[in-house]
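Why Transmembrane protein? Reviewers of the renewal asked for a concrete example.
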Amino acid sequence: MSTASAVAIAVVFVWLGMVLAISFLEAPLKFRAPNVTLAIGLGIGRIVFRALNIVETCWAAILVASLILGLPGAAAGSAVMVAVIALAAQVIAVRPRLARRSDAVLAGLDAPRSLGHYVYIALEVVKTIALLVAGIALLISA
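Here is what the prediction returned.
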């Protein structure tokens, strides 16, 4: 196994673990904690997801570079590209809309429920599946 392949495998599974832990565990559970208001939950969520997206962008860059150096099979390369595109869509298209809505809610306005949350969640599911497929494909080809 090459160093590039080892790095790619590690990054895929660390990234996958972060997405599963934050998006599918922490995010929904924080609103169930006692005394957590919508404003507090939104404030925490904004900070956590901004940090997650920054780290994910770093993982994506490292992963793409390691795959270019290691030239993985088509399945792994395609799955990684799907994950990277899903992340880009979240950061560029969806998060700004969600930020505008949370700004309005935090300012005390009665902002309508956002369809953007469902789009973000759908992209998280796509990204999760893509990372899992990439990780398995990389392990098989290693």
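The radius of gyration is 17 Å. This is the kind of structural detail the renewal will allow us to pursue systematically.
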